[in-house]
Amino acid sequence: MADLIQIEDPNDPGQLKPLLRPLDVTGVDEEGEEMIILSDPMHLLEDSVVLPAAYLPLLELLDGSRTVNELAEQLVKETGELESGQFIRNLVRTLDERLLLDSPRFREAWEKYAEEYQVLPSRPAALAGLSYPDEPDQLRLFLSGLKGQAEEFQIGPLPMEEAGTADTLIVPHIDMRRGGATMALAYREWEKSAPRIILSGGSERPAQIVVAFGTGHSVLGSLVALTRKDFETPLGTVPSCKGVIDSLAQRLGRGAFAEEIAHREEHSLEFQAVFLADLMERGARFEMVPILGGSFHPFLAMKEKPSEEPIVEEFVVALREALKEDGRPVKFLAGVDFSHVGPRFGDKWEMNEDSLAALQEQDLAVIDAALTGDPDLWFDAIASQNDSTHICGFSSVYLMLRTLGGAKGRLLRYEQSPEQESGSVVTYASIAFESAGAWRQ
Hints:
The protein is of the alpha/beta class. The chain contains 13 helices and 16 strands. The protein has 2 domains: 107 residues, Outer Surface Protein A, domain 3 (Alpha-Beta Complex), CATH 3.90.930.60; 316 residues, Protocatechuate 4,5-dioxygenase, Chain B (3-Layer(aba) Sandwich), CATH 3.40.830.10. The strands form 4 sheets. Strands 7, 8, 9, 12, 13, 14, 15 and 16 form an 8-stranded mixed sheet that branches. Strand 3 and strand 4 form a beta hairpin.
């Protein structure tokens, strides 16, 4: 984690070099006044901070390159108003008090937050009661409704050579109230492809391993972030595969758990755990290997391919070896979404029929690359547009496809979820792959 407030002289607050932490910034209109909402993707802060949109240029100045004194002098010079110098000092102090700057104050709070999570015996369900019901019977009814919608999506039977062979899934991680039916459609593939795990007597059979790649929204600098914690859901606990996780971590080194805290509030795997728990209630036996992928934007900035980075190859080899060492049947999934476009995501973009059609065409080109099972084609398809649509699962899909070592994909469903209030849209899809265990070779 980079130092966002650098201290040259701790006794002189004016020598602090403030840099804003990575935050989610959303523009809103409140009674005709443009405002911005600052939200913490790490969820250290429960409440968002609302500021006038006019503050945005000031926030952009907080890049760690100038001291508070230098910023104050710059603003006084630019505005001709002495009050602007004190204003920026007050703003920096307020942001620091709200833990929006990576200062000693933030570091202390963050370390306490991480320590509290580390001692928990399992990962609590962070979004139960928010994105899905937290009461078991209500959740079962909710999931039943999603499955009913998914059945309506499926038009006609699959060809015999395709039915029941999927061992790998790409599943959305959008809010289950929006994209839950498309998630349910993906998990129908596992009911068909593994009937042995939902027959009676499942408790006597060895658990299948599910390697789950999630999008690490708050992973800051790591390629991957692991956790050994079991995942709690209202339908029961999905156990982690501690043997494989420990074996993988031993091969990767101490850094494998460096950003474990990112799992605490991360929804991209929590939603998958709910669907796995649903299958487990009906006889399935799973143990999950939860892996959050970090950002691939450094590769885009350096115009390099992940395949050229030794740490990527080290991870793939380590994961394959850990799974082979265990020897049990393995399934893979990636909990990802696709494009995030519009003012909510910092784009000057107008949502209309033509722009949505163009976005779909762009998305399907990227999805077609994924269907080949070739991770480099997937990377190239996104890199060719410089990830202009903010695909949320870039690294996770790449790492999964690299681990598979070859797979045939089928697009089950593609969806766009417009947000009329913000004029923005999120897209997502469910995809099934048949890898035939190529990764074992």
